[in-house]
Amino acid sequence: MELFPSIPYEGWSDTIPTLHRFAQVVGKVRLAASPRRNHWWNVPFHLTGRGITTRPMGLDPSFTIDFDFLDHRLLVNSVDGRSVSFSIAGHSVASFHSEVLHALHTIGVEPAGLAGARPFDLPDSDRPFADDTEHATYDPAAVTRYWQVLSQVNLVLEEFAGRFSAKTSPVHHFWHTFDIALTRFADTEVDHQPSTDAVTREAYSREVISSGFWFGDPTFPEPAFYSYTAPEPAGLADAPLPAGARWHPRGGSHLAVLPYGQARAAADRRAAVLEFYEMAYRAGATRAGWDVERLACADGITDPVARAESGHQSRHRSR
């Protein structure tokens, strides 16, 4: 299939809120059942060949929850062989939540707090999932396309991740913001105000530059590639970006944004996205005082012998 197929926000804007809340229901299980890692790396989902997964979690028993976005089923599997699955389509958030609780109970898992869980950072965060019969739209074709685009962006981000030699997060799919991202870190601690919430303090305890993609929301109703630097250094929004990209004010800071349509219009879509990520990263890193050249990593290689051989082969091929 083509790289970055069309997925206009308005074409599935009713499905996104439902799917987002389905993901949050399972994400709450992931949060409760996984060992904590720095910057909440234990919490997001990862891509599979058919959808997204929590990866193994829990100890008694160990289990996984997988979304299959080809057959549109949720699969709950334990390490001892017990397995439960059900169709995702046709559910409201309330009935999906009930099915997840039942599936987990069947394999012997009782996740703390899931019965009364509520959405995180969404407009209806005061309403328990168990009471949400409003969100019940699920377009299977649109959801399959979402997963296909997510998979393609995942691989582009993996390639971009290989160009940096210092601390880098996995490429992962965040259920709270419904985006896919990777983050590069400087070993510089960030002081937060005492009023800053615990989620933010852990996520941004060091200087970071994140690169990612999201599918749009009511405040920005189009899919887009993005990058941001936190804390934001002075002058960031004055830095040049590739043609078609722009700095977008959001929440008191700025996102570098390359609309999905602009990437689709490029002669080489993959190269256009990689150029955008690189320019946005360098804009933030240079202004934050990172040693950009020392941290660079060509072709994912840090071994100096292999790097020299790779450089020699590249020069030979260019002759």
Automatic annotation (TrEMBL):
InterPro entries reported for this sequence: DUF5996
The name this protein goes by in its record: Ava_C0101 and related proteins
Organism: Pseudonocardia cypriaca
